[in-house]
Aminopeptidase (Lactobacillus melliventris), 448 residues
Amino acid sequence: MTKEITSAAIDKFTNDLSNHAGINIASHAAQENGIFKASQNLQSKIDLTPTFSVEIDTGKPADQKQSGRCWMFSALNTMRHPLQKEYKIKDFELSQNYTNFWDKFEKSNFFFENVIASAKKPLGDRKVSFLFATPQQDGGQWDMLCGLVEKYGIVPKSVYPETANSNNSGALNDTLNTLLRKDGLELRDLVNAGKSEDEIEKRKNELLNDVFRILAISLGVPPKKFDFEYKDDDGNYHREAGITPREFFDKFVGMNLEDHVSIINSPTDDKPYHKVFSVEYLGNVVGGRQVRHLNVKISEMKDLIIKQLKAGEVVWFGSNVGKDSERQLGLLDTNIYKRDELFDVDFSMSKGDKLDSSESMMDHAMVITGVDLVDDKPTKWKIENSWGEKPGFKGYFVMSDSWFDDFVYQAVINKKFLPDDLRTAFDEGAKDPIQLLPWDPMGALAFK
């Protein structure tokens, strides 16, 4: 039976205010400055000075502007860093717009195929509603980027630069999603009218032609071949003529993407450690690389990341950057805001409870480029962001180890750093991963 809030209860709550010491000071501070400013802890700034015992120089950070392509920028950053060093090209960037074009095109086909497969279910079915809620978007995960590169290769940013619609993606996303929803309803009707597979496929390709045209007008036509010209840091001229995007990736990047695997930390009852998981409806390239996550303990994740950093390799990772963070200062710390002291309220939750209750989930991908070890234990981490040079320390952030514990959910590790038991667990589990529901927090896309 439901119970209303009574006047007596409100009187009791009002009288209780006097039992909390310093409430007047807290009220003045919060009302004048806002909750976060009023509760900001200066000690975080002191503790998170940008000094690290293990550090990889990665140069100038990239800028995703007003788009949700952090996962894409961060993944391409891990690929460009070795290229910059080997070929002596300072601040070189790979084309984020090139992968953006193919991602949106492949996501459109991914949506159509899932709509066709689920056409017999009612529109009110939760999975169908999930599909139509966001047919495509900017967000993604590591394996999705790998699927694009494996199929389409990559090009330098100078060959396929950003446009107004890649830098600020709102209008393009709105345009595409309007079209995809309309087309998705048509494909459902064709299935339910008993049309043949050939007829449905023919119509789907006609609809994809419209998508391709919108992308070509908005982002440009991706090159099939191009000339790569550059001067290295020593002033020497180089030219590679008539190279394809796939040839460029193989020659200049040369990363074996199959050697890099996603590990997650999800301390929830439904996800046993050392098991491999995938997520229904999570992907972009139909027939391409499947999203697969190996769940590990947070201590195992840290050990693997440190091992990779010490070997000179940066680490792509996914986290909840909207929590306990100060963007302009570039600080990520669970102690940066003392809201519990400001309100005299206990806000503490376990990481598992945060995931299960939707309090937290992955929303941003960045790159770990350093760590400060004291007595062989991490105290803070150096982070390369993709928000340009203005925030933080010329675009770099500092993450406390406690923030890592609470808000880091995913990292990409080279298989060679996995101990034998984890490598076996991934290889065996990846053959038939445990399927999670589409709305599981481990299926959240990095989009900030």
